[in-house]
């Protein structure tokens, strides 16, 4: 990676938003390819994701790095659109019905965006009907659901049941996660994958789409 992009990646890892924006603008004005600039941003977020998995950085560092990445992305978004750089795939994410916890879900969203995926965030307290409407409207590759309460975990199954009823189950992969969720639970309700943290969720989402 060129020196400017390397510097941009390092500033992103430190969450230095104004520097990331300035370096992104410099990269654009020096005529670097927007896809290469994007890869510089993704590289920084990838490093943060790995460190987060190893408990070398924590939620606040991830949040400020993601904020810097989003600011950098805003600079190059119009150029990427002009160039027709396609996202890796599309994910619909939300916290299930009855559940208002969104910090983990937001981290998953940020990591997925950082991995080059387009993410449509339905927010919290998302009913099966809302998931279904979003699938019908957006034709995503993946539905990602988060739950933090043992009492709302069954609502993940309700979404899978609704997908089956509508004949949509084969069209999307289903990923689930959140503190009380387990791999066993995922198998029990027929989800495709459980992942333990946001960085793994982004990795697995890409894997599910590309393989
Ligand atoms: Co609530 N809460 N809360 N809470 N809350 C917990 C979850 C709880 C464990 C606290 C406790 O009792 N020790 C408990 C649940 C008990 C249970 O069900 N077994 C609990 C409770 C009971 C409640 C209320 C019922 C309290 C009340 O009103 N009596 C109430 C419910 C409201 C509702 O949702 N309907 C409630 C409310 C709240 C607040 C609104 C005050 C606030 C939420 C604010 C917000 O999210 N905007 C809150 C908080 C902050 C917590 C704790 C303290 C922290 C949760 C958090 O954000 N963690 C939590 C206790 C705890 O966990 N220590 C607690 C940080 C976040 C990064 O982790 O979300 O686990 P997490 O995400 C992780 C992974 O799980 C994973 O990635 C992230 C890390 O990379 N992950 C995924 C998450 N989603 C994923 C999806 C994936 C893959 C990975 O694929 C799709």
UniProtKB/TrEMBL annotation:
Domain of life: Bacteria
This protein's name: Corrinoid protein
Organism: Vallitalea maricola
């Amino acid at each position: 990676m060129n020196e400017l992009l390397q510097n941009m990646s390092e500033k992103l890892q430190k969450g230095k938003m104004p520097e990331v924006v300035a370096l992104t603008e410099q990269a654009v004005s020096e005529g670097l390819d927007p896809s290469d600039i994007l890869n510089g941003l993704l590289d920084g977020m990838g490093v943060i994701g790995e460190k987060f998995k190893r408990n070398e950085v924590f939620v606040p560092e991830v949040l400020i790095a993601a904020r810097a990445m989003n600011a950098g992305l805003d600079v190059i978004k119009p150029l990427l659109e002009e160039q027709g750089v396609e996202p890796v795939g599309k994910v619909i994410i939300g916290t299930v019905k009855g559940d208002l916890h969104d910090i983990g879900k937001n981290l998953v969203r940020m990591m997925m965006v950082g991995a080059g995926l387009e993410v449509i965030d339905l927010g919290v307290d998302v009913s099966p009907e809302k998931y279904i409407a979003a699938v019908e409207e957006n034709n995503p590759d993946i539905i990602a659901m988060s739950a933090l309460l043992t009492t709302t975990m069954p609502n993940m199954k309700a979404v899978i049941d609704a997908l089956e009823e509508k004949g949509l189950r084969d069209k999307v992969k289903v990923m689930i996660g959140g503190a009380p969720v387990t791999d066993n639970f995922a198998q029990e309700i027929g989800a495709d994958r459980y992942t333990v943290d946001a960085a793994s969720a982004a990795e697995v989402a890409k894997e599910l789409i590309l393989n």
